[in-house]
Structures are given as structure tokens and as C-alpha cells.
Backbone:
């Protein structure tokens, strides 16, 4: 049995609708104003949460760190890029307040213990642990101090490593969820691995999410069809924007499509149909769409009916095709035409 969790009073688990997280990551490109613009844009889509990443260059990186993708025209090093992505504690507080006012759950992934302290002062309703931090026991222990659920990404982990991370979290008496993802940017559809979702459910009896890096809506839709408990997708204001995360991101229009699909899928799943009862309710429609017996051509009074003279046409409120055998050998008591259904009163 899957253990449900709560994120900011939102139920996460099999009985709830999929919790959709819009991941901004670094798509704000270091602009505080752009980060706030993302909050307003995401709120309009109906997503549940917005997530950022809290980077502090001096606490998590060195000048030796290479670029994952060499993209920047202004940052000589990866360290310089992280430095440009930093916001102050007050700025993070402002972003969290804006998200709350907009009706969104505010989340941010910390990449150092100092980042955890900054976010803890704001009050995190859950901690999203990136795939590269799953191996970092110290950062998980630092997160554990406010007792919020831990959301673990598994993009680079073996099952043995996932189990090790789960043991750390459970030893700290914390609720948790796991995310299937593949740490490729973008990840091809052939390596998405949605089959892992059920295996994670079976092994760990916790809510399971899917974190998408494809840059399309297809795998997100497929995950929703599997009733995934959480869905995280990267988002961008425009596919022409600058930054390394843009190719793996969805537009706000695509995010809205996923939200609408989530709500539609939930409505479908929550309303099972009794086939027999539905057939009864559709009797009127059945009459419109089914057919009844009529003649193929104009026939005179006294004509003896045989199979070659009969056919079926709409609507279905006349003599049923299954009753055709009752007509054979009967004589007409009046002239009939092919533009009207044959009636019982037309025969002897």
C-alpha cells in the first residue's frame, strides 16, 4: 500500500490528482524580474507548484567545474555562471511570497547546506533533491531539520543507490517520494523509462513522480496516463530564450495542455461506467443511430414480401432487422415506398 504525503496541504498519492511542478531552474538567466515573471505565467496555467534552484557558487562549485554545455557569451567559467544565478535571501523570500500570493506552492532545490539554511528560513513545504545530490548525505540531513517531505530524483542512480538514499530518509523519520527521470538534456524518448514507475511503486510503497527532460509533452502525457503522483516539467517563457535548460523545457501553452490533460484524466478515472446502465440511458440515441426495415423500391398493394425486396435504413424506431423473418411471405395491404419505413400495419 502506498503511503500518501502532503505538500503544503496538498495530498500526494493514489487518491489525489497528479501534483504538477513547473521547474524554472536557470531559465530566469539570473534576472530577478524574469524569475517573478515566471511565477505569474505559471500561475495562469493551473499548475500546482513552481520550483527554482538555489545556487551559491562559493558553496557548491570551483573554478575546475566544466560547463555541461558550453553556451554562455558572458561567463568565462561555470563558476561564474553559478555566481550570476545567485539571489539574496531577501530576494528568495520575495519570490516565495509572490508564489504564495499567486496560489502556487513554492519549491527550490538547494545545492549546498548554506542554500538549505536560506530556504529553511523561508519555510519549505517539501525538499526536492536533484539527481546529483541524492548521494549527498549531509545536504539531506540538513533538509531533515524542518521535517518536510523529501522528493528524491533518481536520474543517475542504481536501485542500490536509491535504496541507500531511501534508508537515510526513513532513518530520519521523514516522508518521501521518488521521481523517475533520466539525467540527459534533452533525453530522447527512447530513454525516458516510464516502465520504472511501477517498479519504484512496488519496491518503495511511496508516491512516485516523473521528472521530464524531453522538451515535449509526450512523455508527460504518458506519465499522466499511468496515474503518476507527481509530474515535474521544465518551463520556459519562450523556446527562443537563452540558457542551457531551454531545449528541455515546455512553453506555458504546453504546460497548460498538461494541466488540462491531468484534470481530464482524473475526471475519467473517477467516473467508471456501468455498460448495461449506459446502454439503457442511450436508448433514445440508439433509435437515432440504428436502422429499421424498409423496402428497396416502390411496391404495390398485394405484393408478397421476400428477402430481396427488403433492406434497412435509419431510424431504428420501426421493425427491427432481427424481425425480418416475420415479414417474409406476408402480403402488403397498401402501396409502400422506399422513402418511408415499413410498418406492421402495412402487411396482412
Residues:
Amino acid at each position: 500500500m502506498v503511503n500518501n504525503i502532503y505538500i503544503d496541504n496538498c495530498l500526494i498519492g493514489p487518491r489525489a490528482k497528479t501534483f504538477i511542478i513547473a521547474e524554472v531552474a536557470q531559465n530566469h538567466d539570473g534576472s530577478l524580474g524574469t524569475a517573478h515573471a515566471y511565477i505569474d505565467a505559471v500561475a495562469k496555467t493551473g499548475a500546482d507548484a513552481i520550483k527554482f534552484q538555489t545556487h551559491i557558487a562559493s558553496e557548491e562549485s570551483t573554478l575546475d567545474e566544466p560547463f555541461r554545455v558550453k553556451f554562455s557569451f558572458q561567463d568565462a567559467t561555470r563558476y561564474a555562471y553559478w555566481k550570476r544565478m545567485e539571489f539574496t535571501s531577501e530576494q528568495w523570500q520575495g519570490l516565495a511570497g509572490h508564489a504564495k500570493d499567486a496560489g502556487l506552492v513554492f519549491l527550490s532545490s538547494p545545492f549546498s547546506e548554506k542554500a538549505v539554511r536560506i530556504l529553511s528560513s523561508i519555510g519549505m513545504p517539501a525538499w526536492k533533491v536533484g539527481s546529483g545530490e541524492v548521494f549527498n548525505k549531509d545536504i539531506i540531513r540538513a533538509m531533515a531539520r524542518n521535517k518536510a517531505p523529501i522528493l528524491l530524483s533518481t536520474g543517475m542512480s542504481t536501485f542500490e543507490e536509491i535504496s541507500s538514499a531511501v534508508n537515510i530518509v526513513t532513518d530520519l523519520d521523514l516522508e518521501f517520494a521518488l521521481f523517475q527521470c533520466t539525467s540527459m538534456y534533452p533525453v530522447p524518448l527512447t530513454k525516458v523509462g516510464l516502465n520504472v514507475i511501477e517498479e519504484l511503486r512496488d519496491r518503495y510503497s511511496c508516491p512516485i513522480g516523473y521528472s521530464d527532460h524531453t522538451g515535449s509533452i509526450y512523455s508527460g502525457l504518458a506519465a499522466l496516463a499511468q496515474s503518476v503522483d507527481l509530474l515535474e516539467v521544465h518551463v520556459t517563457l519562450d523556446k527562443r530564450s537563452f540558457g542551457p535548460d531551454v531545449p528541455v523545457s515546455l512553453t506555458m501553452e504546453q504546460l497548460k495542455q498538461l494541466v488540462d490533460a491531468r484534470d481530464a484524466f482524473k475526471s475519467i478515472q473517477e467516473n467508471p461506467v456501468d455498460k448495461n446502465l449506459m446502454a439503457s440511458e442511450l436508448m433514445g440515441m440508439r433509435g437515432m443511430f440504428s436502422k429499421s426495415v424498409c423496402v428497396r423500391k416502390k411496391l404495390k398493394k398485394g405484393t408478397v414480401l421476400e428477402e430481396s425486396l427488403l433492406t434497412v435504413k435509419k431510424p431504428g424506431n420501426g421493425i427491427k432487422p432481427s424481425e425480418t423473418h416475420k415479414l417474409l411471405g406476408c402480403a402488403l395491404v397498401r402501396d409502400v415506398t422506399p422513402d418511408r419505413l415499413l410498418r406492421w400495419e402495412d402487411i396482412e
